[in-house]
Design goal:
Length: 179
């Protein structure tokens, strides 16, 4: 048996999922920016608050290690272009954006601007790199034809990153998997 409750801890929403099957362990993750805490049925409110704060502190440390600044993204994009695209793709800017909710990245070929979904900030860097190579390839080839795929496939982790992102998208788009 499960019970879902929406709480606010330190001004931020928390979805608490209480389970009668769970005896001791507490686990947590984030879904679209909301902390989801899975706890034993009888865990007190003060214990939920304590675990919420612990998880947030751990997540902040992890995010600080994993998040690249926009300038670091631009530098990395230029490195990837040099390594996998013979330096031909030269972006004018690369930045995180909160406005992209359905695409991982986008490119404006006219001005060389690349935007990456901020939802990827805590994903592994090899996944971010794969999306960067994809967007860099769009600076050279606008569509998704064979020439484009050949460029993208120069990055050795393209297939794995595509599978990773497909799995994340599937999980985010199927709420029954989140409960």
């Amino acid at each position: 048996m499960q019970q879902h409750e929406h709480l606010e801890v330190d001004g931020e929403p928390v979805l608490v999922i209480r389970s009668s099957n769970r005896k001791r362990t507490v686990s947590a993750d984030r879904v679209d920016g909301t902390l989801r805490l899975r706890v034993p049925w009888r865990l007190s409110r003060s214990e939920v608050t304590r675990y919420t704060r612990q998880f947030r502190a751990t997540q902040q440390r992890r995010d600080a290690r994993n998040t690249r600044s926009d300038q670091a993204l631009l530098t990395r994009a230029r490195e990837l272009s040099a390594e996998f695209l013979d330096g031909q793709a030269q972006p004018s800017s690369v930045q995180w954006t909160d406005r992209q909710r359905t695409r991982w990245g986008s490119t404006t070929s006219a001005d060389g601007a690349i935007r990456l979904s901020a939802r990827m900030q805590t994903m592994p860097q090899w996944v971010q790199d794969a999306v960067l190579v994809h967007e860099l390839a769009h600076l050279l080839v606008p569509g998704h034809d064979d020439a484009f795929r050949q460029l993208v496939n120069r990055y050795p982790h393209t297939a794995e990153a595509d599978a990773y992102l497909a799995g994340v998208s599937f999980g985010w788009n199927n709420p029954r998997l989140q409960g």
